[in-house]
Every structure is written in structure tokens, then in C-alpha cells.
Write a structure and sequence with these properties.
Blueprint (H helix, E strand, L loop, with lengths): L2 H9 L4 E2 H10 L9 H13 L3 E6 L7 E6 L1 H12 L10 H7 L6 H30 L4 H7 L4 H34 L1
Antiparallel strand pairs: 1-3, 2-3
Helix pairs in contact: 2-3, 6-8
């Protein structure tokens, strides 16, 4: 999936500056797509040249003027084409898994620490996603929200991100327990 598709999906929420997109990426699409601010800005420039988005200048009194971006009709068509295309299965590509794969020949304590760090990160992300979920629901039940919300895509991807991080926490607990059992057996 190209970064541009994730940006176009984010712009469905409405126009946004590059800064807003970078900040919003962390709160919305970061549960399934990561990008640095530099990558976002580069891609925004390319997308503008390709006619997928348009920019307008917003004058600000005490700050520099900013450019805000919105989808063009061509961008909406490109996003529709993307959603209609067949989806390829995703794959885990995580450095931690390579370290875990090699733990029997590596530094077990360092791998344990890396797993514990990943667990803490997953728990923090889950907590952040819970706060975002509460803001989205805004006092409504999930059923009410899903029946009345203008867009449900952001909620559904948030639920996937939460499930992913909850599973990362469960896996980390299990992996740490296995490594602990092995260390007491060997030691």
C-alpha cells in the first residue's frame, strides 16, 4: 500500500495541514500505517503535482501562514480505485521477531528486555487507543455510534489497532514466561 492511499484516507476527515496530518496520523492511522513527518511532506508534494490533492494558504496572525490540503475529485477517484482493487495479505516485518528467533544463540537478557519494552509500548498504545475510542464514541454506546456515525472506517481500524496491541501484550507475557522457565531450568 502506498503512503498516498493512507494520506487520502486521512483527508476524508477534511482538509488538514501537513502538521495536522502528521499529528493525526499518530492518533488515527498509526494503528495500521507508520510514516515520518518528512515522508508525509514529500508525499503531499507529489500528490499535489499528480492532482490528487490541492493546497490552499491559510493566513495566520502570530504564526507563519500554513498550507492546508484537501482531496480533489481525482484523489477521491484514486481512493475509490484503491478500495476496489484486490488486497494483498499483510506480513509481520518486525526486528524484535528476528531477535526472538535467534534468542537461543543470543543475549537472552537483552531479548527479554526488548520483549518487556515492546509489551510496555503495546500497553501504552492500547491506553491511547482507548482514550481515542472514548472520544469517538462521545458518550454513545458502540451500537449507537455505528448506527449514526457519518463514517465508521476510522472506528473499525481503531478496533483492529487495539486488538493488535492487546495481542502483542498477551504474546509478550507468554514469551517472557517461557524465557523465564527456560532460564530457571538451565540455571
Amino acid at each position: 500500500m502506498a503512503l498516498r492511499n493512507a494520506i487520502m484516507a486521512a483527508l476524508l476527515e477534511g482538509e488538514a495541514s501537513g502538521y495536522d496530518l502528521a499529528k493525526g496520523f499518530d492518533a488515527s492511522v498509526a494503528n495500521f500505517w507508520m510514516a515520518t513527518p518528512q515522508q508525509l511532506y514529500r508525499e503531499l508534494e507529489k500528490m499535489a503535482v499528480d492532482g490528487l490533492i490541492e493546497a490552499r494558504i491559510v493566513r495566520q496572525e502570530r504564526r507563519p501562514d500554513k498550507r492546508v490540503f484537501s482531496l480533489t475529485d481525482a484523489g477521491r477517484r484514486a481512493l475509490r480505485d484503491f478500495t476496489a482493487a484486490p488486497t494483498r495479505a499483510g506480513a509481520i516485518r518486525e526486528e524484535l521477531m528476528v531477535k526472538v528467533q535467534a534468542v537461543d544463540e543470543g543475549d537472552v537478557d537483552a531479548v527479554r528486555a526488548a520483549i518487556a519494552e515492546r509489551k510496555a509500548w503495546a500497553q501504552a498504545k492500547t491506553a491511547r487507543y482507548e482514550r481515542l475510542r472514548a472520544r469517538l464514541l462521545d458518550g454513545r454506546s458502540e451500537a449507537e455510534f455505528l448506527a449514526t456515525a457519518e463514517r465508521v472506517g476510522p472506528y473499525l481500524t481503531l478496533m483492529r489497532g487495539m486488538s493488535f496491541e492487546e495481542e502483542n501484550t498477551r504474546w509478550a507475557d507468554r514469551a517472557l514466561a517461557v524465557l523465564e522457565q527456560r532460564s530457571t531450568r538451565v540455571g
